[in-house]
Amino acid sequence: MTDVKVPAIYSAIHGVMNELGVDKNGTLPGNMGNGKYITASDLSAAVKTAFVKHNVVGFPHERQVSKEIIIFKERLNIAVSIETTYTLVSVEDGSNMVVSGVGDGLATGTAVSANIASTNALKNVLMRLLLITEQSVEDQGKEEPKVTRAQQAVAKASKPTSSEPTVDSMKADIRKRFIDTGLKTTAQIAVLSKAETAKGVTGVTVYQNVIAALTSEKE
137, 39 in Cβ contact below 8 A? Predict the structure, then answer.
């Protein structure tokens, strides 16, 4: 029977997985339940120590997947998504393996958001490689998301305002102000409306012009 020599990189990663332990020193914000989680800095520090012990070095290659500029309350924010590929190499025999992960970053500057995305991608790589999970974070992701004040403001700003005039609301306004008060008859209003449409005016503008003309008459 021929002995099979396992590449040193696999033995090294096995040793890292066997020894690695990382405490959950981070605390999620209130809108995410205040649960505990593993910070990227704690994870990286622990893995670095283990990699040095087991003679592993890593070479990163990052690729920007997307970049979006978001303006909210006159503040410019930049969202960046990064895909990171790491080639892990054993310094004992040169054997290697390739692992990858993704990360997002949001900040007021491109460089800062890219750094945040890079850090998140590194954490994603290490947790997937070493089979580490964060149950509190994943459980929170299954719950109904809580809407922040900023998100509420954005939604409110993007919602069409109900105060915008419509053809029906303009007709109702004309009836209330001019027909019901006896200033004009329905026939007279119809004549004015037809005069506007004959000019090529359409929609709400027809009745806005009619109201403008009737108001000027009153004055």
Answer: no
Residue identified by tokens 């109702």 is 172
Sheet holding 56-72, edge to edge: 56-72, 75-90, 96-107
pLDDT for 166 beyond 80: yes
Domain that holds residue 123: 8-158
Cα distance from N-terminal residue to C-terminal residue, the chain: 109
pTM, whole model, 2 decimals? 0.57
* Structural domain includes residue 37: yes
User: Residue 165: CB partners within 8 Å, gap ≥ 6?
Assistant: 204, 208
Residue 3, SS3 per DSSP? coil
How many angstroms separate the CA atoms of 72 and 69, rounded? Answer: 10
Tens of pLDDT along 184-206?
A: 898 888 888 888 888 788 888 88
Q: Is residue 88 part of a domain?
A: yes
Q: Which two tokens stand for residue 80?
A: 């960046």
Q: Is residue 212 part of a domain?
A: yes
Q: Judge if 98 and 149 occupy the same domain.
A: yes
For residue 80, the tally of other CB atoms under 10 A from its CB is 23
Residues 82 and 190 in one domain: no
Residue 3 lies in a domain: no
Burial of 66 (0-12, 13-18, 19+ CB in 10 A): exposed
| Shared-domain flag, residues 27 and 120 | yes
